Amino acid sequence: MTPDTLDSGPLRGVKAFTPVEGPAVWYADELGQHPEQWTFTLSEDHIRELEAAVEATEHVGSEIQEITLNDVTLPTLAPLLKRFLSEVVDGRGFQLIKGLPVDRWTRRQTVAAYWILGLHWGRAASNNHRGHLVGHIKDLGHDPARAETRLYATTAAQPFHNDAADLVSLLCLHEAQEGGDSRWASSWAVHNEFLRRRPDLGPVMTRDWFFDRKGEVPRGKKPYFAIPVFNYFRGNLTVNWSSNYYFSSQRHEEVPRLTQDHLDAIELFDALAASPRHAIRYRLQPGDIQLLSNHTVLHARDAFVDSHPDPARKRHLLRLWLAPPNERPLPDAYLDVLGDSVEIGKRGGIVLENTKLHVPLEAE
């Protein structure tokens, strides 16, 4: 997408290379001081309602992914979940929900409860080539220096990025002994400051940036793809970013080399996202659920140390990639990111020729 073809339709009135406004523009040194504005703690009534829903679905079958919205009823919780979804899609772009009693539930109860919550936010998409509809964020001993390693299965830091879905949600089961803090920032606020400091790099951000597929290559596709960082489409702005994947793509000979403009942009964008002005830092506790928009929010994770002798007590989060029914239109540039579909409600997912969609109870 080149500057002279940028769409600037009527949806939000966003104009290319100009500051964007709205609730998705926020600052950590302001909003981060008021967690009561973006945190909700589930009541015991909500938990009982969710437990009843989990129990009611035991007849559905052995596979959690077979549970649908038609199988569950959440009279008081469902309206809240809808409100959270609206805030994430059309508001500030994130919500924290606390109080899921993961310590007293079995693993199956926990995963089923999380799946049921996710059903109220959108269609679940495959997290990886294995077809995990509920992903497991846990150190599996993979080498972070290996080009095809996805960092969620290591203890390494994950720099600011967006995932390959409209929304991403995390549920904390166990926290690390040390480190592993979650950070997130408004990509709209970063966009504004980036252009204020380096307006000359604005056009660079609307050209193709190459992503490595990290070995998860669908049939007929190349081991990399390209998409702009700043996507101005139908009067809206959608940001897609991952410096880790940009650098990794350079292992492919046919991918153009990163220029000095690219390197300058990476240095500035990553620094802005990580700055105290922009990044909220929060240590997820067991039972915490984080729900983020990948279109208006960047997220990252600190490196962590976890030498607990019991593998079952090591840092462990569950992840959902979700396609909600009330999302924004996206340009075709997102086809490679979102599993060859930009149709609202049917986006996202890594599916290879032999991928079998399922919901594992353990990391694998």
UniProtKB/TrEMBL annotation:
Residues 63-321 form the TauD/TfdA-like domain. Gene3D superfamilies: Clavaminate synthase-like (3.60.130.10). It holds the Pfam family TauD. GO terms for biological process: antibiotic biosynthetic process. Keywords: Antibiotic biosynthesis, Oxidoreductase. InterPro entries: AlphaKG_dependent_hydroxylases (IPR050411), TauD-like_sf (IPR042098), TauD/TfdA-like (IPR003819). One of its GO terms (molecular function) is oxidoreductase activity. PANTHER family: GAMMA-BUTYROBETAINE HYDROXYLASE-RELATED (PTHR10696), TAUD_TFDA-LIKE DOMAIN-CONTAINING PROTEIN (PTHR10696:SF56). This is TauD/TfdA-like domain-containing protein. It comes from Prototheca wickerhamii.
